Amino acid sequence: MNSTPNLHPDSPEARRYNRVKRWLEVSDLIVGFVLLLGLVLTHGSVRLRDIAYVASRQYYSIAVFVFVFLLLLISKLLSLPIDFYGFRLEHEYHLSNQKIVSWLWDELKGWLVGLVLMSILVIVYVVRHGVRHAADVLKGVIVGNKAAPTVGSELDLLWHRLKRVCAASFRRGTLRPSPHPVHCCGS
Asked: Is the pTM of this model over 0.70?
């Protein structure tokens, strides 16, 4: 009795499907990379930042979320043709019977979950590391941006104002020290 499993080689159809699916994944990765590189090289990130800042009525924290929203929206719109081809590919090989409306709804839900997760990451990072470190992150994200030093200096001013408010609250007794390792205002 033979104990080795009977392994059948993949059919030509299965190999073609897997090859096309891999190329779609690589293409999606390339589109994302080209988008980010294009934003940096053409100073599109500066324009995107300015749009976010104006749309948020010059509130920095809201502008960050608007920036993330716009970046994810552009990325999704650019990768939508690749995603749609993947949808059609699964139908071609009878691996899915999902309707287009249902697929679009699933894509929207996935995009919204990504937006929520990115927003949570931004909030956690700013709360954990403070506004001063968020300025360093923005300087790194907006590579090649000539206005990055001014954004950093504006955040430094905000950071010092926040520290003064915390100090005044401690003196008045309205703010108590945190028992956690991360204290108010990073002190």
From this structure: no
